[in-house]
Amino acid sequence: MNKKLVTLVLSGALLCSLGAPALAAESTPPASAETGYTENVQPLPDSLLYYGTVKEILTGEDGKVTALYMSSPQSEEFVMNLSDQTFWIDSGKRAPGTPDGLAVGEGLYVFHSPISTRSLPPQSAAFAVVRNAPQDVGCATYHKVEAVEEKDGVFQITTDNGGLLLYADGTTPMSTYTGSSLEDLSGLKVGSHLMAWYDVVALSYPGQAYVQHIMVLDREEDTQAPGQEGDVQPLSQGENARTSVSTGFLSLLQNALKALAGQGDYPAQS
Asked: What is the CA radius of gyration of the chain?
């Protein structure tokens, strides 16, 4: 009799344990319009802006600049990893730039990935490095195109997760990173990236600004056939060429692993 009682008790406990997850799942409010329960997940920004001075220039065996160790009075020290997909911009000339002549102590604006390592200092992939930014005029700003509309010759470009509208018309100076011809913005595609120069942003939501100059960030290798070295896939919504896993991200992971092992070739944070 006691043995049967113990068996029944154990069986009941087992059934209760199996039913508990299902009961918990049923008690969770479904994501529906009736309950008003929704998961509030904020999308990551396409890039983050870091302003600081160059503390050390890291180079590879071929002498090519591979990373910038930077410091800033407003933020923590950072290592910005560079790749062939990093854009160099001369903001004052409103033209493509280069790392030539880069020196310790130079101030830079770096637009980088919102994803960074947990090393000290943290590391991130640099999308665009802006040099020669005059203090009295607007600095070149890196943006992803989320939507493009044209009305009566005026182009409206949506960016910053819908938080900013940029306007340009037939009088707006336009250029491309590679120097290819550009008559207007009719060929601008969602997922493309550009540098925009503007001063004032209207205090509204979304913010609005009339740009003084637009540089479309195209590259000659964008037209290469798939499989070629340095190939960049055509841009589409949700994808962009400057996050090529074969260059920037793998380098980022390798440096992070070295940092964890104490083998990083950049200085430790003091």
From this structure: 25
